[in-house]
Amino acid sequence: MKRWLLIILAALSLAGCGYNDFQRLDEQTKSAWSEVLNQYQRRADLVPNLVATVKGEANFEQETLTKVIEARAKATSVQVTPETLNNPQAFQKFQQAQGELSSALSRLMAVSERYPDLKANQSFRELRVQLEGTENRITVARNRYIQAVQQYNVLSRSFPTNLTAMVFHYEPKPTFTVQNEAQISTPPSVDFGPKK
Fold first, then answer.
1. How many Å apart are CA 119 and CA 110, to the nearest integer?
2. Using alpha carbons only, what angle is made at residue 104 by residues 100 and 108, rounded to the nearest 5 degrees?
3. pLDDT by residue (tens digit) across 137-195?
4. Of 33, 36, 112, 144, which is least surrounded by CB within 10 A?
5. What percentage of the chain has pLDDT greater than the value 90?
6. Is the residue at 24 inside a domain?
């Protein structure tokens, strides 16, 4: 009888330690992260078609296209593994590369406003709509990931589940941050003057 009582007490103490919650939230963050990666990949896949369409505009700024191509190459070269979620430095490197691609694409879209033939091009318009939709999907996926990480991190820092986190090495996970907030809050300058 005493033995059964100890087993029941051990089971109840394990249930209250948050171990199962860590497992559930860890899987939730991995799932949310996979969706972020899917949307970033979707965007990267759009870039070659977008660049090819823009190259058709004879006078388009080559420097802008080069920056988009380089940013895409950098963003797709960052090796992403399941461990990226537990490595703040690797996560930041990935985030920085994606941010550079976002900036380069924003600049490309702003510069394209100066080219009426390009704006009238049906392929370009369709690609632009797809890119805008993908950017929206990226935002949604990132927000879901941020929420999943927040739940996981709160669990890993709250008492008594923080004790379980220490025992099983459940470190807080990195989340997306806004890089260069001052730069982001300054709108890009766009000159709609005549083409050279």
1. 11
2. 170
3. 999 999 999 999 999 999 999 988 888 888 888 999 988 876 544 444 444 443 434 44
4. 144
5. 47
6. no
Report the domain count for the chain: 1
Give the CATH number for residue 58: 1.20.1440.20
How would you label 81-117 residue by residue, b for 16+ Cβ within 10 Å and e otherwise?
eeebbbeeebbebbbebbbbbbbbbebbbebbebbee
Two tokens at 40?
A: 């970033």
Give the lowest-confidence range in 15-29, 33-47, 54-68, 116-130.
54-68
Residue 81 is assigned to a structural domain of this protein: yes
HEC profile of 45-97: HHHHHHHHHHHCCCCCCHHHHHHHHHHHHHHHHCCCCHHHHHCHHHHHHHHHH
**Does residue 78 lie within any of the structural domains?**
yes
Per-residue pLDDT reduced to its tens digit, 97-128: 999 999 999 999 988 888 888 888 888 889 99
